[in-house]
């Protein structure tokens, strides 16, 4: 699955060792199978930070642009929800990486040094008040709706991030996007339906038109397991088909 897609790419990156590939694969498997209520939790984030050894500080931040609030912020140590940071909103245009994401729509991993010299970055008010001494940054975003942004940010004070660091995140970005979509779809399913989290995930992908084989690949389980979860879901929902099951998922369903 993911490993087969990864191998031809890795061959073109001389500094990407076999142990790096194994670590990436293990992270994707763990991220896809770890039982949790939200997509990104401290345990998972700690594992992600280990894959980018240059990083001294890292966080995953969900910003609510309508309310100008930090809706969700997590690092390797804990979670914060619904926080204010007026200073960030006042100076946000000085954050060159995030400004690049918003201006171009290119959400792939980007280093601060791609956009600004050290002198330019350290002269900005945002750096002096919020970022010092972390002079180096590497970040990427997940594609979501206009109201929110979901950004993974890695910072370092000692040295800039390597192309190997960037490459690891380029490999992981589509996997993390897929995991995020799985949790988003699971959360949108009616809360009064007596389904397990895994059944909700699978039905969320069924609604997107995915086959059992495709769902198995996304969730790192076998097609037989997908079929068994669907059979259990049909029984709980009192239906016999995929179409009928999907019709029961939404809060406005009869």
How would you describe what is shown here?
- This protein is α+β, with helices and mostly antiparallel strands and 254 residues long.
- It has helices spanning 2-10, 18-33, 42-50, 86-91, 96-104, 118-123, 125-131, 163-188, 197-207, 212-219, 223-237, 242-247, and strands spanning 57-64, 69-74, 79-83, 110-111, 136-142, 148-156.
- It has a 6-stranded antiparallel sheet, sandwiched between helices.
- α2 packs parallel to α8, α9 (197-207) packs across α11 (223-237) and α10 crosses α11 (223-237).
Quick overview of this protein structure:
Helix content is 50%, strand content 15%. With 254 residues, it is α+β, with helices and mostly antiparallel strands. The chain has a six-stranded antiparallel β-sheet, with helices on both faces.
List its traits:
globular, 254 residues, 50% helix, Beta-Lactamase, single chain, 2 domains, six-stranded antiparallel sheet, Arc Repressor Mutant, subunit A, 6 strands
Structural class: alpha+beta
Radius of gyration: 20 Å
Strand content: 5-15%
CA-CA gap between termini: 38 Å
Number of strands: 6
- Secondary-structure element sequence? HHHEEEHHEHHEEHHHHH
- Envelope shape: globular
């Amino acid at each position: 699955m993911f490993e087969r897609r990864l191998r031809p790419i890795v061959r073109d990156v001389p500094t990407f060792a076999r142990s790096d590939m194994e670590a990436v694969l293990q992270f994707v498997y763990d991220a896809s199978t770890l039982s949790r209520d939200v997509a990104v939790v401290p345990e998972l984030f700690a594992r992600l930070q280990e894959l980018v050894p240059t990083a001294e500080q890292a966080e995953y931040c969900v910003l609510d642009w309508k309310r100008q609030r930090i809706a969700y912020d997590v690092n390797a140590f804990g979670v914060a929800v619904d926080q204010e940071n007026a200073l960030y909103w006042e100076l946000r245009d000085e954050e060159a990486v995030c400004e690049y994401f918003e201006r171009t729509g290119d959400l792939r991993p980007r280093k601060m040094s791609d956009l600004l010299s050290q002198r330019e970055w350290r002269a900005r008010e945002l750096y002096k008040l919020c970022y010092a001494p972390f002079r180096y940054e590497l970040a990427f975003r997940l594609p979501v709706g206009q109201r929110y942004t979901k950004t993974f940010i890695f910072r370092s004070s000692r040295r800039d991030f390597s192309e190997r660091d960037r490459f690891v995140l380029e490999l992981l970005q589509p996997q993390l996007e897929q995991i995020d979509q799985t949790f988003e779809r699971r959360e949108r399913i009616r809360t009064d339906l007596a389904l397990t989290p895994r059944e909700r995930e699978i039905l969320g992908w069924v609604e997107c038109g995915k086959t059992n084989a495709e769902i198995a690949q996304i969730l790192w389980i076998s097609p037989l397991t997908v079929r068994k979860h669907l059979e259990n879901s049909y029984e709980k929902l009192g239906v016999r088909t995929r179409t009928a099951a999907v019709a029961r998922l939404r809060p406005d369903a009869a």
